[in-house]
């Protein structure tokens, strides 16, 4: 194996060390990083092509997200005092790692399996529009959605409950990190920015939004445009003001796709109209029409 085949293990010591030994026994190279400083150092070196990590407080999520590597989150950790449970868990992780590598020794970022990521952006009047959009989507559309709408942090749970009646849509509030998958909708926090390393989206609590109205749609578009994601898009829905429009030239220059709700169908036409006025919007329609077009784009 080469250095580029190395697997980074960002877990508590009681789990990282047994897993690294199991990886070595399976013929896989591992680098253990049990502190944020070690994670950042290994990310800078760039040897690890895949990271196994969990959401233990203090783990360097931001460094991982910006490292341009595949990320494999661990959803639960076994009792390290139970040798049988720990051994079984290690075997399961090795199997997951090999699946990511598609049976090859060199572990590269998954691309075909990762969903396209589209940003749903809006403000006043966007909630019913986005609800109509999501409810009109075909089942099994291989698109993950990041939802950025100006709202009060106290109403986060209400927003998630109001947005979708579609049983195939999985709504998640972004608190620490979440996995992006087809049919998932991750609602951004109005308190802080995020990082994206598909298929993982990570909250950055130490990085507040810079704009007056949050989450900042322009900042969210810029982050999406700079992420290592194969296929992305932005849909601008109802809202007051022009948030988001200024980020569209840079976003589309890298191949990003921009759609907008038709102003006449929006409660507040200013925001989609501002996007349309940039000349960079390739499709305008009602929320239902946008859903039909997206379904046709990826399913047909």
Automatic annotation (TrEMBL):
<dbReference type="GO" id="GO:0000156">
    <property type="term" value="F:phosphorelay response regulator activity"/>
</dbReference>
<dbReference type="GO" id="GO:0005737">
    <property type="term" value="C:cytoplasm"/>
</dbReference>
<feature type="active site">
    <location>
        <position position="243"/>
    </location>
</feature>
<feature type="active site">
    <location>
        <position position="123"/>
    </location>
</feature>
<dbReference type="Pfam" id="PF01339">
    <property type="entry name" value="CheB_methylest"/>
</dbReference>
<keyword id="KW-0378">Hydrolase</keyword>
<dbReference type="InterPro" id="IPR000673">
    <property type="entry name" value="Sig_transdc_resp-reg_Me-estase"/>
</dbReference>
<protein>
    <recommendedName>
        <fullName>protein-glutamate methylesterase</fullName>
        <ecNumber>3.1.1.61</ecNumber>
    </recommendedName>
</protein>
<keyword id="KW-0145">Chemotaxis</keyword>
<dbReference type="InterPro" id="IPR035909">
    <property type="entry name" value="CheB_C"/>
</dbReference>
<dbReference type="GO" id="GO:0008984">
    <property type="term" value="F:protein-glutamate methylesterase activity"/>
</dbReference>
<feature type="active site">
    <location>
        <position position="150"/>
    </location>
</feature>
<feature type="domain" description="CheB-type methylesterase">
    <location>
        <begin position="120"/>
        <end position="300"/>
    </location>
</feature>
<dbReference type="GO" id="GO:0006935">
    <property type="term" value="P:chemotaxis"/>
</dbReference>
């Amino acid at each position: 194996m080469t250095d580029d085949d190395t697997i980074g293990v960002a877990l508590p010591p009681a789990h990282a060390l047994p897993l690294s030994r199991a990886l070595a026994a399976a013929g896989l190279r591992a680098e253990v990083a049990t502190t944020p400083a070690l994670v950042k150092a290994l990310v800078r070196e760039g040897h690890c092509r895949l990271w196994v990590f969990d959401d233990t407080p203090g783990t360097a999520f931001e460094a991982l997200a910006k490292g341009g590597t595949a990320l494999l989150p661990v959803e639960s950790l076994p009792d390290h005092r139970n040798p049988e449970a720990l051994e079984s868990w290690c075997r399961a992780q090795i199997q997951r790692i090999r699946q990511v590598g598609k049976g090859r020794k060199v572990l590269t970022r998954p691309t075909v399996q990762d969903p396209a990521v589209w940003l749903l952006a809006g403000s006043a009047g966007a909630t019913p529009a986005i609800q109509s959009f999501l409810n009109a989507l075909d089942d099994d559309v291989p698109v993950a959605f990041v939802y950025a709408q100006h709202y009060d942090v106290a109403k986060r749970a209400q927003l998630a409950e109001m947005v979708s009646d579609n049983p195939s849509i999985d709504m998640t509030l972004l608190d620490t990190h979440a996995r992006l998958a087809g049919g998932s909708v991750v609602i951004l926090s109005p308190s802080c920015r995020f990082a994206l390393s598909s298929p993982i989206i990570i909250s950055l609590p130490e990085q507040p939004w810079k704009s007056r109205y949050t989450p900042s749609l322009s900042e969210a578009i810029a982050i999406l445009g700079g992420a290592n994601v194969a296929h992305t898009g932005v849909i601008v829905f109802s809202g007051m003001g022009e948030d988001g429009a200024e980020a569209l030239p840079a976003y589309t220059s890298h191949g990003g796709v921009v759609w907008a709700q038709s102003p006449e169908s929006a409660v507040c036409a200013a925001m989609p109209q501002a996007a349309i006025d940039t000349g960079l919007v390739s499709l305008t329609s009602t929320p239902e029409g946008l859903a039909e077009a997206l379904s046709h784009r990826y399913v047909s």
